[in-house]
Design brief:
Strand order of the largest sheet: 2-1-3-6-14-15
CATH architecture of the largest domain: 3-Layer(aba) Sandwich
Low-confidence stretches: none
Bound molecules: ribulose-5-phosphate
Number of domains: 2
Structural class: alpha/beta
CATH topology of the largest domain: Rossmann fold
Largest sheet: 6 strands, mixed
Strand content: 25-35%
Oligomer: single chain
Amino acid sequence: MITADQQALKKMAAEKAVNDYVKDGMTVGLGTGSTAYFAIRRVGELVKQGFKLRCVATSEATEETARECGINIVQLNDVDHIDITIDGADEIDPNLQLIKGLGGALLREKIVAAASVLEVIVADESKLVQHLGSKASLPVEVIMYGHLRTAYALKRQDCEPVLRMKGSEPFVSDNGNLIYDCRFKEIRNPFFLESAIDTIPGVVENGLFLNRATAAVISHRDGTVTEMQRRE
Ligand code: 5RP
């Protein structure tokens, strides 16, 4: 359950990132999730103040929120690049490597991140971990056809894949796919794991975002906001 305090922390990180990074005239990628939500709202305020922004959404839910905030949404195919994307994360390690996708938008989020000059992550300090996989499961999006076989192949990567449900039905992503949340005891080499997962037939995308984030704006319970930058 998200407490009022956690909500305030998410808002603090999201608003600082938008205030610091979003400039008039930019093309902006809008992330998905409860922290990105506050970034979208702040972008909406900038639009009301007169900023001319073109925004690309990473999910249908984000597109709906953005439109409610008066934000002009354009399709990714209609832009040649994105200046900055502001998105959340489920885990952030000290090298700015991430697990994303608890909100189910990992595929579009990764495509948008890859099209972005800057990928800025917004989160509260509860998302910081020493090693990826220590708190969160790794979401893997798979096509429906033969998904039990795909799950079997995922299990051979030394994890416990659990089909994500929405009520009594499997959760279906915006792309019409299923998600397996894969619980690892430990992710020793995320780069190796990413390639191993990506070679499994039926896998569409995984939630490891490696060398994708350029910065992370993190809010802390003591009221401070810090920033991590990617070391090249
Ligand atoms: C959605 C995501 C989200 O960014 C991630 O799950 C973090 O969400 P929240 O800010 O609600 O904790 O990857 O696919």
